[in-house]
Amino acid sequence: MRECLVIEGGHRLQGVVEISGAKNAALPCMAAALLTAEDCFLENVPAIADVDYMAQVLGSLGVRVESCGPGTLRLNAADITSFAPPSHLVASQRGSFLVMGALLARFGQAACSPPGGDVIGQRPIDVHLAGFAAMGADISRQREKFLARAKRLKGARIFMDYPSVLGTENLLLAASMAKGSSVIVNAAAEPEVVCLAEMLNKMGARIWGAGTHTVEVQGVDELGGVRHRLIPDRIEAGTFAVAAAITDGELELRDAPVAQMDSIICKLREVGAGVEVVEGGLRVWGTGQRRAINIQALPYPGLPTDLQAPMAALLTQAQGVSYVHERVFDDRLLYVGELRKMGAEVVTVGSMAIITGPTPLVGARVRALDVRAGAALVLAALVAQGVSEVCDIHHLQRGYAEMERKLGLVNAAIRRQPLVEAS
Ligand code: EPU
After folding, report:
1. If you average pLDDT over residues 255-270, what whole number do you get?
2. What pLDDT sits at residue 115?
3. Is the pLDDT of residue 120 over 70?
């Protein structure tokens, strides 16, 4: 059944929001379970569709994935039955391609079609494949699938053309069981990469430098089981921080990973919001004043591309002209057309959105075109006059755990209902 979120705008948000575990840490850590026959326990796993999709991908290979209480998964890859997840499962999200590095490292073979994921521009996987090839893998293509084979991967010095997040994670998975040492140069420094490296080290891997752009890996012959807690989701925390600022509300974001949120904290203060670090999280409040600012989406520690659209929603309510420059993906401004339906004054020039504010927004039926575009529209709906319907919410459910419940608890007028097709 297709559903939408019905949101009545104009309510100040107030209260406490519990931040869930990070989506983009859950996926690589789940893939890491492929590297051992022993049990891996993951804690703080968010209740989102991407985790379910990843569980299905791993299940198709023979991995047993079981829930052991709220937020905890047990994964066991002792009885692998396939090295090739079905393409329709791989298409469900981008993280599925991480099985390549792990299968190749432990079993010397893997076959996977190009992954799915949000439509936010070209999303090649050349740096993943070039890295596997540098470690001695033979890469070929059979119909839609990439095949990778290597008797045993060999450590190598690898320069990544672009500091791809999933690319770095795939190479870490592969290098951790390669023979000899590897150096990944121009690696992604995102906190989710660090979370994966910490898990791998607890499993017996030898990785140094995760969180910097040069990561060294001394390959080991075997990895063992682990219990690992996922980091909190800095993107979810940033989205709720914007929700406080845009509604002139006040939210305490419990478990927000403050040390990983410099860029968003700085930019929210520049707009005029109040942000204070409190014990166990962050307090964010609107001050009634919002100034136009310029933002650029960049690799970490720059402002995350995943918060670019939510920030754009906020800037429709700021005084003056804001420039929003997307510098990570080449087509991540599709939400602009939906914001315009609500009355926002936004034009795009290439990968730049130019926003003139403040404009009163009005409730409308809009589409969540990807996870973060959907979040931007929910934020806009929270301040729009009247009622909005945000459709295609399966995108939101991929990345935000119980978003409408969390918003409802802090005074948003929001409910989920079946979509009634417009006549
Ligand atoms: N790129 C290449 N070659 C490659 C891979 C990537 O040129 O082989 C380029 C892409 O074209 C893009 C840029 O690198 O322009 C960034 O892509 P990256 O590979 O870093 O992104 P990703 O690993 O596919 C992850 C997150 C995204 C997040 C980006 C950037 C996961 C599952 N996804 O994607 O999260 O936006 O890093 O931080 O970890 C989201 O959560 O909504 C989301 C899209």
Report:
1. 98
2. 83
3. no
Decide if 313 contacts 242 (C-beta within 8 A).
Answer: yes
Beta bridge partners of 4: 417
How far, in Å, from the CA of 123 to the mean position of ligand 1? 7
User: 234-246 vs 371-383: helix axis angle to the nearest 10?
Assistant: 20
pLDDT value, residue 143 = 87
CA dist., res. 304 & res. 68, Å (int): 32
| Average pLDDT, rounded, for the chain | 96
Cα–Cα nearest to 60, from 101, 108, 111, 117? 111
pLDDT at 118: 64
How high is the pLDDT of residue 144? 87
Tell me which long-range contacts 196-201 makes (C-beta under 8 A, separation of at least 24).
196/25, 196/28, 196/29, 196/32, 196/169, 196/172, 197/172, 198/228, 199/29, 199/32, 199/226, 199/228, 200/32, 200/35, 200/172, 200/173, 200/176
Cβ atoms of 251 and 278 closer than 8 Å:
no
Q: How far apart are CA 233 and CA 238, in angstroms?
A: 9
Identify the residue whose C-alpha is closest to ligand 1 atom 8. 125
Residue range 84-93: mean pLDDT, rounded: 92
Locate the ligand 1 atom nearest the alpha carbon of residue 329 and give its number: 15
The response to whether residue 165 sits with its C-beta less than 6 Å from ligand 1 reads: yes
pLDDT tens profile 160-213:
999 999 999 999 999 999 999 999 999 999 999 999 999 999 999 999 999 999
Cβ partners under 8 Å of residue 169, min gap 6: 28, 31, 98, 101, 188, 192, 193, 196
Task: Give me the amino acid identity at 136.
Answer: G
DSSP-derived letter for residue 343 is T
Q: What is the dihedral of CA 7, 11, 16, 17, to 10 degrees?
A: 20
Find the distance separating the first CA and the last CA of the chain, reported in whole Å: 18
* Protein residue whose Cα sits closest to atom 28 of ligand 1: 306
